[in-house]
Amino acid sequence: MGLLLFSLFLLLHWPAPLPAEETYTFDLNEIEKKPYHFGGYVEMKPTLFRTRRDSSLYRLKYYNRDIGSSLEEANLKLQLEGSWEAGIGRLYFKTNTDYKISRLEDQEKTDLYEGFLSLNPSSSWKIDAGKKTFKWGKGYAWNPVAFIDRAKDPDDPEVGMEGIFALSADYTKSFAGPLKTLSFTPVVQPVYDHINAEFGKKDYLNLAGKLYLLLYDTDIDLIVFTGGSRTTRYGADFSRNIGTNWEVHGEIAYIKDVQAKLTDPAGQVSTVEYDATSYLLGTRYLTARDTTWILEYYRNGTGFSGQEMADFFGFVNNADRTYRSTGSDAALTKAAQLSEGNFGRANPMRDYLYLRISQKEPFDLLYFTPAVTTIVNLNDRSFQISPEAAYTGFTNFDLRLKASFINGPTNSEFGEKPYDFKLELKVGYYF
Question: How many C-beta neighbours within 10 Å does residue 284 have?
Fold first, then answer.
């Protein structure tokens, strides 16, 4: 909390630049496009958590320590990006370094988010080789058809994501009729020990493809993925503007031969296999008063039922009791391994509702945007609601204060989270 108050003090007393009279000059070199670009982003995000010490996931994560009623962290981020262009070629890179300061453990992680060579031999063709993000899908909080991208964080969907190593091409052609644009994107995705190793079985070359159509003013994607690393899956999405301020979108994905590990309260693990269908329906609406509404319903066909999640939480609680009575953490280690799989992913159950309402510059307060976001688990009625306030009045600065209230009954997704409240202040600077 002290770190949060100190950060707020810095923001309130940050010296604003003083205007100065300058002679206007015109330099042609300033508007010429340079062949290179370099920039970046640095962020400081102190965070305060209020712990829920009687929850299953708290017992699983902190069974051998007592962290008290609160946990404070300072999260630092540095992103560097640059590009260089010559002829038909372009090199681009983006790195990301996260450093977390915590009384539990300091952590540092640096990754190459993107780094690829792009060739444009003609106006219709583009070829990319290296690590990049594809951003397939039309959803805001979730993308069930993003077969070759990493999953978004629904709590912060706009944060940048790490890409994958791939070889891809884009062919685009325009027409004069109802079909205005056609684009085809084939992708080759390798999975080996040090290349995309987290994307499934290793030593395979996987194939994916996306066919994009701008048909009758509707954006449509048809998507397929196949290969040995993951099972075959098919997808489609659409987006259409109903009016000037109203957009609707949707996605559907069919995934063959999904394998899921289930457990009962005693820790007996079984594997089930089935074909799954996931889909999303959403809308975005901008009112005349500059209020933006984003509403999405997500059906996760690979998710767990309420009883299956309750069985997992029961196993965690039984494993914790065993540890308290015998000192053996073998069952907790087994539960942690299950949690690192599908049980521990963001939104692991089947039906979710996402709603975000943001208001640009209310009461004529320039550069100020308050918002509120909620994610509701429709299966167990647990939820998270997050009010926030953002300010962009300082040049190249991005300021946001956000609180999250996490609530739900026993054996529910949000009710068993290790924290029931989170407060964070983000101070970002672009250069």
Answer: 18
- Cα 351 to Cα 347: distance, rounded to the nearest angstrom: 9
User: What's the CA gap between 194 and 175, in Å, rounded?
Assistant: 42
Architecture of domain 40-430: Beta Barrel (2.40)
Cα–Cα distance for residue pair 386/420, rounded to 1 Å: 12
Distance CA 75, CA 47 (A): 8
pLDDT tens-digit readout, 313-343: 999 999 999 999 999 999 999 999 999 888 9
Residue 119 to residue 112: CA distance in whole angstroms: 20
The SS3 of residue 56 is helix
The candidate with the shortest Cα–Cα distance to 280, out of 403, 157, 408, is 157
DSSP state of 378: T
Q: How far is CA 249 from CA 146, 176, 202, 220, 298, in A?
A: 15, 24, 34, 10, 12
DSSP state of 54: T
Please give the model's pTM, rounded to 2 decimal places: 0.90
Which tokens belong to 218?
């509707």
Give percent helix, percent strand, percent coil of the chain, each to the nearest 5: 15, 50, 35
76 exposure class (CB count in 10 Å sphere: 0-12, 13-18, 19+) = middle
